[in-house]
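Q: Is it fine to ask for two folds in a single conversation?
A: Yes, each is treated on its own. Send the first.
Q: Here.
A: Result:
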Amino acid sequence: MDSNEHQPPEGGAPPPPRAPGIAGLSTPYRVVAALALGGVAVAACGHLALVFLHVAPSNTVSKQNAEMVDGWVYPEFEQNWKLFAPNPLQQNISVEVRAEVRTDDGLLVTGNWRGLSAEDGLAIRHSLLPSHTEQNELRRAWDFFTSSHDEDNKANGERGELAEQYLRRIALDRLDPRTEADMAVGKGGRLAVGRIVRIQLRAATTAVPAPEWSDEETDTQTYYRELAWWTV
């Protein structure tokens, strides 16, 4: 009998195959992964429960927890059913912003109006996977503001201040002091970088014209709703 017949191959036996998924991890990593998945599951269930209470008909549970539900849902997760309304929106609303910049040279300059809605439109046009933020963030923020303010831009409830802060954060996040200063004197101006001290927003509303076959007359003039300056 060959003495090497029952000997393992050179280098020893191959290691046993590792189990797939979490089972293949070491014990400490399995514990961490299980805790992480449990946390995600609890957060997801909590989110779905709060959104359900928000959209469900008024009931004892939703009334008792109204403050907590509203605090979680508004403004990022607010539900809107206008898609199924008998009278869908027939206006184009474009939100615009301009900034007042204090440059390093001490100059106080006011930039031109920037069409934030137009920039979002360009970003999603011809995109196969458009960003949810670019589609809805600014639009919903403006809807939130108008629903919580009267025609004189005065808050008509406790949500008004939250709506103002939310809209202002979105606008500030998109502004750059150098760009806004250059816009005040034309592209390539020699203004130094400064800081934004105030911003102002407005909405340009234009009615969608009636189709050619319709006898309806539509006022397609653009109307502006201009807000007061906000100090940063």
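Q: Second one now.
A: Result:
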Amino acid sequence: MPRYIISSALLVIACLLSGISTVEFEKKIWELTNRERRANGLSALQYYQPLSELARRQSDNMRRHKFFDHKDQEGLTVGGRQEKYLPRLKINSIGENLAYLSNSEKRFTPQEIVQGWMESPGHRANILSPDFTHLGVGVVTKGDKLWATQNFASPLVMIRHKLPLSSSMKGVKLSFEYLSAKPRKGFAATIFYPDPNFKFYLDKTHYQKGSQPQQLVWQEGTRFTVDVPFVAGKGKYKVFFGWDGSYINDGFEVRSR
């Protein structure tokens, strides 16, 4: 008979039979999560593979290092892991659900996991949060044990270049994918200079110090590019994104050499 031990930081479940692959198991958790969201009048979460890879890393960490907690062996929680292992993604918010399952018959069901989460207030709040738009699921098994991680997020953009970025040219053209659920009207970039006193002239008489607004060039679908001119000399340039003159204070750094 299944048994449940639930607290704000811990969910332990012994489950019944399943018989599907790990990838199918992960996708079924996503489908059942969206079923709960639709039943509560919320839009479905988009399955996002980079978040699944991040979630799988946490599940495997818990398996290898024999712990069960949102804080990993490096002292990082989900936000810190995203910044370290998925820095090409910029987000507005991120959340995480964890589950540890043990069953002597080595059989588990996605339904039991999602049901257990829905019966726990903290986990339920993540599943039914209107702020999240994307989801990744990572499942790892060993013997009669299974570890599952859900990573929720509201992504903004993903840069399509390897990091870190640097160039000895007079500037660079950066390519991005737009991931936000918000309409892209009014979405723009702000470039911050290495010299905070360098002036960017808006017209013949008006200027701003240390930064400049920059238009986006939209490509096919959700892709766009941003030109980063190295007009303020060598050093670190930063590209931030936002709507209608504001910006999210977590940008991409480009070094002019």
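Q: Anything structural to flag on that second result?
A: Two points. The two ends are 64 Å apart (CA to CA). The mean pLDDT is 91.
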